[in-house]
């Protein structure tokens, strides 16, 4: 399989741009120039004086464009170099060469890239710019990896590693480890590759380098793909994609999609694989990514070959071989040759397959990559078997099996490397600590023999005493400060609690205001409007005297309702005021109930309803009698409202226990469903009209609940449609003082 690592070296922040290709040469008008002039603050094609700020912006544009449009990166890199040479700005020249060299090797122009990097290295060395020097070495390492010159690649990457370790640039160091891992992966040394991948990944994850983390997840996925652990490989590729989503790093996303396509190819899901690979091919074409084009043409050729589309497959594979030969990409050339032999084997053209399989094996041996060599041996075995050379075919089949066995053996090493890296690191750290302790002990033994040790100890002890005294004084001072802070904090908390309490009271008053306004606006306006309307009609002689007499009973009924409701409302409003003091006294329950029953006896008779007082004599309660009177009045009027001719209303009392009296207002009226009964005491409800179309506000029962609770009681309701309703509430019973009880007993 080809090199499928992320192929870009990120030298700047991603810049927003399109995929439209731009000219490579400075002499050709670049369509992005006009849109960037304002950003640069100068006309880049003019002969106006150039400063270093403009050149630095040029080079930054080149770095920013590389991820999404390498041609634009090359254009701005060249512009930066030209402007920097005019004013002899060495750092600008070197940074521009770094960008153009990067694009040159990416485009397959390795010799020109080498020239750019060599000149940049000379300038960076003269300027003692370690960071720039490290970037050049890393770029050269990546280029020689692509050219399969792994020895030279490691030379450059190790030079960069020394610099990054010295300057402690963790981001560059993580990228450095990643690129060294790519070299070892390319050589088939998967265990070493994982060592460096995980070193880079630990740094990237620790510092939240999402781009680098994504690249390393992709690289570890490649190792798992080589081990044929496909689900885990897909899992790592998906992690990489998740980190790349939302960025303009088109190359990286295309590479990960290519890797997923190859996994699907290995799993024989050719249709899905072609979808992923075609998506990556569009990006590779738009950016002139030769390495990507070589590997993608080979992958697509294999997909079409397995689908039985021989001519299409051969065309793709021939193109891959031609490109890889032209640009000297040995790895891609070997992969394409073995792919072409696979296509010919599938078509049973064994002579052609043999020729390409032998060429592919020769390159695989040169590369030293065990996986590529194994694939070459497999195709040779199939080719020779097709040609009837079964002994030779058997020999290559054994070679293939041996190499696959070695790859499987490497699997355990790779897993141990990845899972035990932390343990190895901790072990090495402990060993270093033990060595340090031994050296310290040896040093102490040596100085113990010297007579001056007493003076040294004396000085140390004196210094410690001074430090301890100073520490003690500081600690005491700090304790005093802490105590004051705690005191102030307590005061602040007290003020906050007081403020919260005041705020709560204001909120309660505000809610009370809203409730009163709502009641007065909706429930009292209609009766008063009716009365005013009647007088207006009377004043205008609009109605006759008889019509007015006919209207009077209805108006009086509404006025009576309004008057009763105002009495209740005013009493309840008074109870809500902060200054209201409930007049808790001892009173006879019978007297209070009898008074209200007598007042509403006529109203009940008019509807043909029996209103019966069953309250026992001798029951004394300890509460506000006016509040209880209001509650009983509301419950009786409510019962009359929802009863009709022949129904009965009973007011009953009983002593629930030695501390509580229960008063019940029970009727045999229309009743109500449980759902409606459950809402009565929770919020204002839409009042239903009575059996004779009596009106209501829906607030009376809320008033009753509030007044009962202020008297330390509870109120509840039970009802059944067609059977009737029973409202019950409790009030405290009057208890005689202890002496009074004794006298009563005597």
Polypeptide structure, described:
The protein is an alpha+beta fold and 746 residues long. Among the domains are: 31-128, Serine Threonine Protein Phosphatase 5, Tetratricopeptide repeat; 269-419, Serine Threonine Protein Phosphatase 5, Tetratricopeptide repeat (Alpha Horseshoe); 465-523; 582-732, Histidine kinase-like ATPase, C-terminal domain (Heat Shock Protein 90), CATH 3.30.565. Helices cover 71% and strands 6% of the residues. The chain has helices spanning 33-40, 52-66, 70-87, 90-106, 110-127, 130-146, 150-167, 170-186, 190-206, 210-226, 230-244, 250-266, 270-287, 290-306, 310-326, 330-346, 350-367, 370-386, 390-448, 453-523, 525-539, 545-576, 589-599, 601-606, 625-641, 674-677, 700-710, 738-745, and strands at residues 585-588, 610-614, 620-623, 648-657, 660-667, 715-720, 724-732. The strands form two sheets. A five-stranded mixed sheet has the order 2-4-5-7-6. Strand 4 and strand 5 (660-667) form a beta hairpin. The protein is elongated. The model is unreliable at 8-49 and 738-746 (pLDDT under 50).
């Amino acid at each position: 399989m080809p090199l499928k690592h992320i192929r870009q070296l990120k030298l700047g922040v991603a810049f927003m741009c399109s995929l439209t290709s731009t000219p490579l040469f400075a002499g050709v008008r670049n369509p992005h120039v006009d849109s960037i002039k304002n950003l640069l603050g100068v006309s880049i094609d003019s002969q106006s004086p150039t400063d270093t700020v403009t050149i630095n912006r040029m080079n930054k544009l080149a770095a920013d464009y590389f991820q999404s449009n390498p041609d634009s990166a090359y254009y701005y890199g060249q512009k930066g170099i030209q402007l920097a040479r005019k004013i002899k700005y060495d750092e600008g020249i070197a940074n521009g060469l770094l960008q153009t060299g990067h694009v040159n090797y990416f485009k397959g122009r390795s010799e020109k890239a080498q020239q750019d990097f060599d000149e940049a290295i000379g300038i960076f060395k003269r300027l003692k710019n370690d960071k720039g020097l490290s970037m050049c070495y890393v770029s050269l390492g990546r280029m020689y990896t692509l050219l399969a010159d792994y020895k030279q690649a490691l030379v450059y990457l190790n030079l960069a590693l020394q610099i990054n370790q010295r300057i402690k640039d963790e981001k560059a160091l993580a990228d450095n480890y990643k690129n060294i891992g790519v070299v070892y992966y390319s050589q088939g040394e998967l265990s070493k590759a994982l060592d460096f991948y995980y070193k880079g990944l630990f740094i990237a994850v620790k510092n939240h380098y999402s781009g680098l983390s994504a690249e390393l997840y992709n690289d570890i996925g490649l190792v798992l793909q080589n081990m044929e652990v496909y689900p885990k490989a897909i899992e790592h590729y998906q992690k990489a994609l998740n980190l790349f989503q939302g960025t303009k790093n088109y190359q990286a996303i295309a590479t990960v999609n290519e890797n997923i396509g190859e996994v699907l190819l290995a799993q024989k899901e050719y249709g899905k694989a072609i979808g992923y690979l075609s998506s990556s091919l569009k990006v590779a074409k738009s950016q002139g990514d030769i390495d990507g084009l070589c590997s993608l043409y080979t992958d697509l050729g294999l997909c079409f070959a397995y689908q039985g589309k021989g001519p299409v497959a051969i065309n793709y594979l021939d193109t891959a071989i031609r490109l890889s030969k032209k640009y000297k990409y040995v790895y891609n050339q070997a992969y394409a040759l073995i792919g072409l032999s696979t296509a010919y084997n599938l078509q049973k053209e064994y002579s052609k397959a043999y020729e390409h399989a032998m060429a592919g094996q020769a390159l695989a041996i040169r590369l030293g990559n065990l996986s590529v060599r194994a694939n070459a041996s497999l195709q040779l075995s199939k080719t020779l078997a097709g040609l009837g050379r079964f002994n030779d075919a058997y020999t290559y089949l054994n070679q293939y099996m041996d190499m696959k066995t070695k790859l499987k053996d490497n699997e355990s090493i790779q897993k141990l490397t990845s899972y035990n890296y932390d343990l190895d690191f901790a072990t090495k750290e402990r060993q270093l600590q033990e060595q340090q302790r031994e050296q310290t002990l040896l040093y102490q033994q040596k100085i113990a023999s010297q007579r001056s040790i007493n003076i040294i100890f004396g000085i140390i002890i004196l210094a410690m005493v001074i430090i301890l005294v100073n520490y003690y004084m500081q600690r005491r001072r700090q304790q005093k400060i802490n105590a004051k802070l705690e005191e102030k904090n307590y005061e602040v908390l007290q003020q906050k609690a007081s403020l919260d309490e005041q705020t709560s009271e204001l909120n309660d008053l505000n809610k009370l205001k809203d409730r009163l306004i709502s009641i007065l606006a909706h429930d009292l306006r209609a009766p008063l409007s009716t009365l005013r309307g009647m007088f207006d009609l009377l004043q205008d002689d609009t109605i006759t005297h008889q019509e007015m007499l006919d209207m009077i009973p209805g108006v009086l009924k509404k006025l009576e309702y309004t008057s009763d409701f105002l009495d209740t409302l005013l009493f309840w409003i008074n109870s809500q005021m902060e200054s209201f003091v409930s007049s808790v006294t001892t009173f006879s329950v019978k007297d209070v109930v009898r008074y209200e029953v007598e007042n509403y006896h006529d109203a009940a008779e008019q509807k043909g309803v029996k209103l019966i007082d069953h309250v026992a004599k001798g029951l004394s309660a300890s509460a506000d009698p006016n509040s209880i009177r209001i509650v009983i009045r509301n419950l009786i009027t409510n019962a009359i409202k929802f009863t009709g001719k022949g129904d009965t209303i009973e007011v009953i009392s009983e002593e629930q226990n030695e501390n509580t009296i229960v008063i019940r207002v029970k009727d045999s009226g229309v009743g109500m469903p449980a759902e409606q009964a459950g809402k009565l005491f929770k919020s204002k409800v839409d009042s239903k009209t009575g059996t004779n179309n009596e009106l209501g506000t829906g607030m009376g029962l809320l008033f009753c609940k509030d007044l009962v609770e202020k008297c330390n009681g509870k109120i509840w309701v039970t009802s059944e449609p067609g059977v009737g309703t029973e409202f019950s509430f409790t009030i405290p019973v009057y208890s005689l003082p202890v002496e009074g009880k004794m006298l009563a007993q005597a």
